[in-house]
Amino acid sequence: MFQDLDGGLAIEETLRLVLALLLGGIIGWQREHYGHEAGVRTFSLISLGSCLFGILSHHMAFPGDPGRIAAQVVSGIGFIGVGLIIKEQGSIKGLTTAATLWAVSAVGLSMGYGLYYVAVLTCVLIFVSLFLRSIPHWDKIIGKPTQLRKERMVSPENADQSVTSSEK
Q1: Over the stretch 133-163, which tens digit does the pLDDT of each residue have?
Q2: CB contact burial 15-27 (16+ within 10 A = b; e otherwise)
Q3: Domain map of the chain by residue range?
Q4: Of 96, 92, 113, 122, which Cα lies nearest the Cα of 24?
Q5: Residue, of 81 and 127, whose pLDDT is higher
Q6: Lowest mean pLDDT among 2-16, 18-32, 132-146, 147-161
Q7: 42: how many CB neighbours lie within 10 A of its CB?
Q8: Which pTM does this prediction carry?
Q9: Element (H or E) spanning 88, and its range?
Q10: CB under 8 Å to 125, separation ≥6 — which residues?
C-alpha cells in the first residue's frame, strides 16, 4: 500500500494540506468573528478540499491536462457561493462571503500546486480586504457608496407623475 510512497513528496504534500487548512481557517475566523454564518470550519474545508484537488490533479492528469480538475473546482465553488447569496427587501446579503469562499478555494488550489508564496500572500490580501471594512469611518475614507439616480422623461401625457426618484 505504501511501497510507492516517496517520503519527501509525502511530507511536502502533508505540509501543503496542513497549510491550506490553516490559511482557510484564518479567513474563516475573520468571517466567524464578525458574525457571518460561514466560518472556520467552512473556509478550512473549502481550502483543504481545493488543495487536495490541486494535488490530485498533479498525480492524475498524466497524460491529460492538470488544469481540468482546477476548472471544475472553480465551477463547483461558484455553485456553492450562489447558495450563500440572499436577496431580501432590496438588499443583497452574502455576496462578500461567497466571493471570499471563491478566493479561499484559489488559495487552497495554489497551495495544492505548491505555490506557497502565492497562497500565503493571497490569504493576507483577503484578510486585509475583509478587515478594512471594520475600520471606523471607513466609508468616509473611501467615499460613500454610489447612489443610482433614475430619471424619466416627462411629456405632456405623463406630466402629473413624479419625475425623479433615488435609490441606494
Answers
A1: 777 766 666 665 555 555 556 666 665 555 4
A2: ebbebbbebbbbb
A3: 7-142
A4: 122
A5: 127
A6: 147-161
A7: 22
A8: 0.75
A9: strand 86-88
A10: none
